[in-house]
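Lab meeting, item 3. Inverse folding demo.
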């Protein structure tokens, strides 16, 4: 899993600060697009067609594939992921790290390509045959992107199975160039998809040093952590700490001094922002010490202003005292304080790096293998076909069958094949297989050839122009 390949941090251009990152999923989409175009153009030359058309066909396929697959994903997950987002439009447009449903892209891309072929009066069956193999090559790269992103994961399996895969709690950038000591990107907001899925179903328990606790009695709701904040966001984690973490709140009598330290940090508005919080942590003294987490403290932001008053910030610190106050006397005895210090000084970077999901079936890797095998099989059909259109029709028959099987080992959509409960992709597989069979049968009633080649059409057009009388 490698969600971010290169993290350049943020850069300022003409006064505008922008994050610069190369995502694994997006990189695979680009490589898949370029490779598919190259293969399609080579096949086009051998078929006597102009490679130039396939650059346009490839661009239409890319645009249609992304828009269609994103639209299908948004429709399916609107209530869960988009309707209540802080910025629904921003969430909709954020495709850099996944969130695509392949069939939606196939349908829209096919419609756009067929429309272009009709407009240009090109032989549709021949062109669809040519793009059949590149489609599967592009899919292989897409599944590699899923593997890097951690999405489209398999169900849990026997840990002793040699093909089992484990995914990290957080994905570190392969190359990180922003100069921050934190090994994780500022763009990484939560756990990997596999870990998040297992955590939400209480199948896995992260180290308590990484858990976002929040208010008393609000840690768990319906078996999951409130507001999907199960663990601290990686940008708020810290390494091993050496100085005292309890000096501000271990003794209730220290509140006046804490109020004074808060005022020095918060400034004239007496409200603590996230930036001021970061400055306080960097100082390693005063109101904050280093192990306090902004995302956890925000649970005490009663007015949802994204800033903390002293009362809200101190209530957060008091909640930490209650956590370690074993005898419940309202203060920390020496033994309790020592235990609290050990807990709060822990190296969270090391704990997070060692944390992985339960073993799962290698759904993404099998998806890559499936796409490559189908590319080879359809390529053989293309060379041996007796009627143009057979290679594409065979792809429409075979891919849904293999996709149905792959869906049965995935765990990101509920299903139970034996009980007749199928995923949306499995229902789509039924429909596409039927369409493919109809296409194969229909080809028997059409001419074996879709018409003259591109070179022959150009010669005929040139001959027609010569015959036309000059005016």
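The presenter then showed the designed sequence:
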């Amino acid at each position: 899993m490698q969600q971010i390949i290169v993290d350049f941090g943020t850069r300022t251009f003409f006064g505008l600060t922008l994050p610069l990152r190369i995502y694994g999923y997006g990189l695979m989409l680009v490589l898949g697009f370029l490779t598919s175009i190259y293969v399609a153009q080579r096949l086009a030359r051998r078929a006597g067609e102009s490679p130039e058309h396939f650059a346009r066909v490839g661009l239409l396929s890319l645009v249609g594939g992304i828009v269609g697959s994103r639209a299908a994903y948004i429709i399916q997950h609107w209530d869960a992921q988009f309707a209540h987002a802080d910025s629904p439009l921003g969430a909709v447009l954020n495709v850099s790290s996944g969130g695509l449903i392949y069939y939606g892209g196939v349908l829209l891309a096919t419609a756009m390509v067929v429309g272009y072929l009709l407009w240009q009066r090109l032989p549709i069956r021949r062109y669809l045959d040519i793009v059949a193999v590149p489609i599967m090559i592009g899919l292989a790269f897409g599944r590699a992107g899923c593997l890097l992103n951690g999405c489209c994961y398999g169900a849990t399996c026997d840990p002793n199975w040699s093909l089992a895969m484990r995914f990290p709690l957080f994905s570190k950038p392969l190359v990180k160039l922003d100069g921050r000591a934190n090994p994780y990107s500022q763009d990484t907001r939560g756990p990997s998809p596999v870990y998040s899925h297992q955590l939400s179903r209480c199948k896995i328990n992260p180290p308590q040093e990484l858990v976002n606790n929040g208010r008393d009695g609000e840690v768990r709701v319906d078996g999951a952590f409130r507001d999907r904040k199960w663990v601290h966001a990686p940008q708020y984690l810290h390494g091993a700490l050496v100085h005292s973490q309890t000096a501000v709140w271990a003794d209730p009598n220290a509140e006046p001094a804490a109020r004074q330290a808060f005022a020095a940090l918060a400034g004239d508005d007496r409200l603590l922002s996230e930036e001021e919080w970061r400055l306080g942590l960097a100082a390693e003294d005063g109101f904050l010490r280093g192990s306090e987490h902004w995302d956890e403290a925000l649970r005490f932001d009663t007015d949802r202003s994204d800033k903390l008053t002293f009362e809200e910030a101190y209530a957060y610190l008091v909640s930490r005292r209650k956590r370690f106050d074993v005898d419940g006397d309202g203060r920390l005895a020496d033994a309790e304080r020592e235990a609290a210090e050990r807990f709060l000084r822990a190296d969270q970077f090391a704990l997070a790096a060692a944390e992985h999901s339960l073993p799962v079936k290698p759904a993404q890797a099998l998806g890559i293998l499936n796409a490559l095998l189908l590319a080879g099989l359809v390529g053989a059909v293309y060379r041996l076909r007796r009627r143009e259109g057979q290679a594409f029709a065979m792809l429409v028959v075979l891919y849904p069958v293999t996709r149905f099987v792959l869906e049965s080992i995935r765990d990101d959509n509920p299903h139970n094949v034996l009980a007749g409960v199928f995923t949306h992709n499995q229902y789509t597989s039924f429909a596409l297989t039927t369409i493919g069979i109809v296409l194969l049968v229909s080809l028997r009633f059409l001419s074996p050839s879709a018409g003259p080649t591109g070179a022959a059409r150009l010669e005929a057009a040139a001959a027609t122009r010569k015959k036309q009388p000059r005016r």
